[in-house]
Amino acid sequence: MKDDGKKKASKNKKHEDLEKNREDGQEQFLTTNQGVRINDNQNSLKAGDRGASLLEDFILREKITHFDHERIPERIVHARGSGAHGYFQVYESMEKYTKAGFLQDPSKKTPVFTRFSTVAGFKGSTDLARDVRGFSVKFYTEEGNYDLVGNNIPVFFIQDAIKFPDLIHAVKPEPHNEIPQAASAHDTFWDFISLMPESTHMIMWAMSDRAIPRSLRMMEGFGVHTFRFVNKEGKGTFVKFHWKPLLGTHGVAWDEAQKISGNDPDFHRRDLWEAIENGQFPEWELGVQLIPEEDEHKFDFDLLDATKLVPEEMVPVKKIGKMVLDRNPDNFFAETEQVAFHPGHIVPGIDFTNDPLLQGRLFSYTDTQLKRLGGPNFHEIPINRPIAPLHNNQRDGHMRQQINKGQTSYQPNSLGNGCPFQAKIAEGGFDSYPEKVDAKKVRERSESFKDHFSQASLFYNSQTAVEQQHIINALSFELGKVDAVEVRERMLGLLNEVNKDLAKEVASNLGMPVPKKKTQLNHGVPADFDPERYEPTKSNPSLDKDPALSMMHNGFGNIATRKVAFLCADGVDDNSVNEMKKALDKEGAMVKILGPNSTEVKTADGKSIKVDEAFRTSASVVFDAFYVPAGDKANMALKKIPKAIHFLNEGYKHCKPIATAQENGLIEETYFWNKLDKKNLAEDGVIVGKDKSSEFIKAIGQHRFWKREEKDSIPA
Ligand code: HDE
């Protein structure tokens, strides 16, 4: 194969395993599913060329029958997702805490398949919905598959699994008219949330820019629940999992998200795909917060409560390894759609805790695969099968692939030499952590789960002013879409418990007062709903702020994979294009040449530059930054193209860096140019003049110039 200079995917055991199932029709005859070569794939068999089709046409019947059965049920949640292959490598042995094999040897690469998803939308919905993102990783370890099925937000809406169907019914499109798609901005969602104060912390996260990520490659991931590491001596340590993206954590503007949804609903999917195809492999570090068992009750919240996080200020995140995604799937359905994650897929050295949300999940995930993938043999689907050897007495069922040899399928047996036999713990046999249980069977929730607001306040207070404003805007938008006034009132009551200014600002945007009375939790709810039992408390939290909760605390400076649009037309200056492109390429940014047509532009020196996209087929919202190269003729031509002017106007509105090699040109046509303080242009992310690549790179590294939001926005 020709070396194109791009990084290549690593070879690993899972790829070798999948190779057995890969099929390629290149240079092959077209056949039926029975392998019979097909001579005519254009005409069905008929009684005469104008006659009825014949039932005996096995080629027609097979083809149409297979087609009729192509669809499987989409996931009830997380239906829309994108996946990729890669590997994980630990930095140093974690044997002190866990005996998990894949966390011992820094020289070992463990294959992974990772799927990112939105939660609420259907399979064909937009990527840029305001929503939580799923972050699921399947580690194909030598001791069996380990699935870390997390989200990009470290807490959850509810504390107990029994509320999950209610939550999802509330957020999904409303049942009478199936509106709206992939959006929480509707009555039923906020009705439920306003009656469910335990959701308040999660709502703060879900209304932050985390819920509109710039890229799947720029999101954190979290295991959410507290899990347990168990070492060789059987000692347990509580563990919280984090994924930290090397590109930092970044969001887009809400107006931008909505427009991306129209211009490119596959924006995130495409972005992930293109980065991997270009050899710019996304990377995340795996971090752990380790909490000795003795410290279980040392916090002012309960480790078993999934609406709480362990602040990094209290327990730092130790980075223990790195995941690299370096290969796109060959087939979306076979891999991304059929992959079956399960938080209950664990390996020796990792175990559960009693988190009641996690406990419910342990049931749900197998159940859902049975329905979705059609039977109990979904573990045999290539993407799901482990690279570890698999032997047991489970037999038969729909679509069984394995051909189990021998007379026995039970244990104990003597006729089959007792095989397959149980593994001793020293031989890698799984033993559950022997947690002591001595309790009454009750349908109750612990008192230690009752503080629903302290961490919501902690989150809000830890945000920068810009981030707080975005949360206010998001809540004002979402609640503004709610018709039922009592729902809005209840929400304002809850927000008031988080932060008085927050409630005031949202109330003012809605044009209503913050209710004086404490939230009425029983409003509109059947009589058997006892609000007293759910009445939240607020403890005296030991922490006011945690900088790690703000997205703005790291990940700036790196411009790798940032998409930069060069706005070009005939007469563009060669050097001005080439020098800037060279500088950006060196930093790993992706330059796209935009022009008046889809083919090429002629430079001032008469050379041609290939156009990646015409203005008419593209949109400013899919770029991170804009550059107008020098060239009088080109700039004059661009001034006459409304879409080119709109690129800069909208880019400015969305706070993106803009560079222009000359003042007298396209930029003069924008709505903002005359309003700018020309002495402090760079501070506002507007770079003017020749040879300004380093200033432009610095500006792109800052991601956005949110300060512009304080001024005005374009009427677009
Ligand atoms: Fe899930 N969840 N979930 N969930 N979840 C599913 O399983 C469920 C929860 C998460 O890319 C389903 O295979 C219950 C928390 C991700 O294929 C289903 C409860 C977290 C994915 C299911 C939760 C998640 C799912 C639907 C409350 C973050 C996508 C399809 C007790 C830690 C996995 C499927 C993929 C998918 C049930 C709560 C993350 C129905 C009952 C908390 C990332 O089984």
From TrEMBL:
Enzyme Commission number(s) of this protein: 1.11.1.6
Role according to the record: Decomposes hydrogen peroxide into water and oxygen; serves to protect cells from the toxic effects of hydrogen peroxide.
GO cellular component, as recorded: cytosol
Similarity field: Belongs to the catalase family. HPII subfamily.
Location of region: Disordered: 1-34, 514-547
Keywords: Heme, Hydrogen peroxide, Iron, Metal-binding, Oxidoreductase, Peroxidase
Listed cofactors: heme
UniProt organism field: Salegentibacter salinarum
Protein name, entry field: Catalase
NCBIfam families recorded: PRK11249.1
Keyword ATP-binding among UniProt keywords: no
PANTHER family, sorted: CATALASE (PTHR42821), CATALASE-B (PTHR42821:SF1)
Signal peptide: none
Chain positions of cross-link 3'-histidyl-3-tyrosine (His-Tyr): H342-Y365
Entries under SUPFAM superfamilies matching the protein: Class I glutamine amidotransferase-like, Heme-dependent catalase-like
Active site residues per record: H78, N151
The gene coding this protein: katE
Gene Ontology MF term list: catalase activity; heme binding; metal ion binding
Binding site for heme: R75, R115, F164, R361, Y365, R372
Amino acid composition bias (Basic and acidic residues), ranges on this chain: 14-25
